[in-house]
Amino acid sequence: MPGRDGMGPMGPGQGFGRGGGRGRMGGDKAGAGPNGECVCTKCGTRAPHVAGMPCNAQQCPRCGARMTRA
Fold this sequence. Notes:
This protein is an all-beta fold. The chain has 2 domains: 30 residues, no CATH class; 39 residues. It is built from no helices and 3 strands. The protein has a 3-stranded antiparallel sheet with strand order 2-1-3, with no helix packed on it. Strand 1 and strand 2 form a beta hairpin. The radius of gyration is 19 Å and the shape is rod-shaped. The relative contact order is 0.17.
């Protein structure tokens, strides 16, 4: 270990060790929690997010299209 800090050849903040990743499932909105809204991809209607059900599994109450997380 070059600096004898246990981080290996890359050092802190680089690669995949100690916080170098992007979080669960690799995105900002992934695992966004139970609160928030879903928005229709077709007409823009907003609906409350249902805990335990992904927004893309919900249908728009107005036009029936799939929704996405707001």
